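Supplementary Methods, section 5.1.

A reviewer requested that the exact input to the structure prediction be made available. We therefore reproduce it here, unchanged from the version used in the analyses.
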Amino acid sequence: MESVPEILSETEQSILNISVVSITTFPPDNNSSEEPAGIETSLIKKAVPLVTLISLCHQLIISVLLGENWVPYSNLFSIFGFLIISAATLQQSIRILLVFGHTRNIFLYELSSFIIIYSTLFWFGIEDIIAFSQIRVGLEALLTLTLFVYVVVKFTGIINLGRILYAAVPLIIGCGISAMLAQEALNVFENDFFNLLFVCSVFYTSLALILATLSFSIFRKTVEWSYINQIIINMFSSGKTFLIRHFNK
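The structure derived from this sequence is encoded token-by-token as follows.
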């Protein structure tokens, strides 16, 4: 018999999987003679809601963690938060390159990105810290996205890139709507800590409900979202099984 922590653990994992929309291995296109690399973009899709939330309530986060004196600098935290997506994208690109043994390409990317980013920053200077941060983060995002597109198209085919972009649409819609709803809850409480907890709850609850709704209505016939449907069904089945066992004691 499963214990309550085990049931809760399964439920939490199911909710997390709903929110990140995992994409597993896709077959290569007909023009590719190589075996496909597994494309597990769950890390990227965990990063997107997190970065959205940071951009939405960066002042609350800084106020709770560092104090009110640091709130004027919270914009920097919001800007550098986008590096989370860049890091997740780069990690996935490197993973695919390692699968195919193209470690030389990793070295070339690291070298070229270092030269491009820091030569550009040296050219513009660092008088304006906000502009400096935006250029730094923007270049990193552009370079990692370019590498990701190149790696996916070269090793798994352009069709798989289209599938990834298509599967990302519900997440983008969900994050946008959830951010608008959470924005209305920014100043419900006077205490910043409770405000932050409430905003996070509204955002992630809304995101889970929106993704579940889109999954069962518009996207349920796709391969990617059929997997999400099964996760949702398993989540509720676990809860139902727990309740039946609990009340039958």
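Residues 129-156 form the longest helix (28 residues). These observations are discussed further in the main text.
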